[in-house]
Amino acid sequence: MILQDAAWTTRAGAALAALVRGGDAIALVGDLGAGKTTLVAGLVAALGGGAASSPTFSLVNEYPGGRLVVWHVDLYRLERAAEVVELGLDDVIGDRRGICIVEWADRFAVMPPDHLRLELAHAGVRRTLAATGTGPRGGALAAELLRSLA
Ligand SMILES: Nc1ncnc2c1ncn2[C@@H]1O[C@H](COP(=O)(O)OP(=O)(O)OP(=O)(O)O)[C@@H](O)[C@H]1O
Ligand SMILES: [Mg+2]
User: Fold this and answer.
1) 31 alpha carbon to ligand 2 midpoint, in Å?
2) Which helix (H) or strand (E) holds 145?
3) What pLDDT, on a 0 to 100 scale, did the predictor assign at position 57?
């Protein structure tokens, strides 16, 4: 689908917030500036989480305030696969107290087998969003998200 402007990207994050449940994992894929962080901000805000992030994990921002904790990971600055271990991702992926959303998820193999994959791309000044699932739960989330945004 087409996201006409940044507010649409925020709204896509908010729509996702209404659908997720504890333990869900979301991969965010897309070029520099495609809108990944904008979507995460919309998701966190709609879940009721504050902007505060915790330094518990080096590259994981934790937004604990809302219906679910959001663990926001950005792999852009990660250089070596060995560093993935230091992220502490194993501690949060699948943790039913919250959801895990990963920017630049294609850079390293960090996602669990069944997750929602969101691909953002530039389309002139606008963006496109594609949602797919890599298993039953991811597939259900993708279908529900596209339905709720239609
Ligand atoms: N649908 C949209 N149409 C036009 N501009 C958008 C859209 N969504 C987000 N933007 C704008 O794109 C810019 C980059 O957004 P954002 O930082 O979320 O991208 P990103 O994918 O996280 O980038 P990075 O790869 O650097 O992490 C921001 O100025 C944002 O407002
Ligand atoms: Mg970003």
Assistant:
1) 9
2) helix 136-149
3) 57
Q: Residue 76, exposed/middle/buried by CB under 10 A (0-12, 13-18, 19+)?
A: exposed
Tell me which residue has its CA closest to atom 10 in ligand 1. 6
* 29, 106 Cβ separation under 8 angstroms: yes
Check residue 114 and report its DSSP letter: S
Does residue 107 line the site of ligand 1, with CB under 6 A?
no
Sorting pLDDT into bands at 50, 70 and 90, what band is 59? confident
> What is the domain range of residue 111?
2-149
The number of distinct structural domains making up the chain is 1
User: Which amino acid type is present at position 109?
Assistant: A
Written as one string, the DSSP assignment of 69-90 is EEEEEE-TT---THHHHHTTHH
* CATH number of the domain to which 140 belongs: 3.40.50.300
Ligand 2 mean position, distance from CA 91 (Å): 22
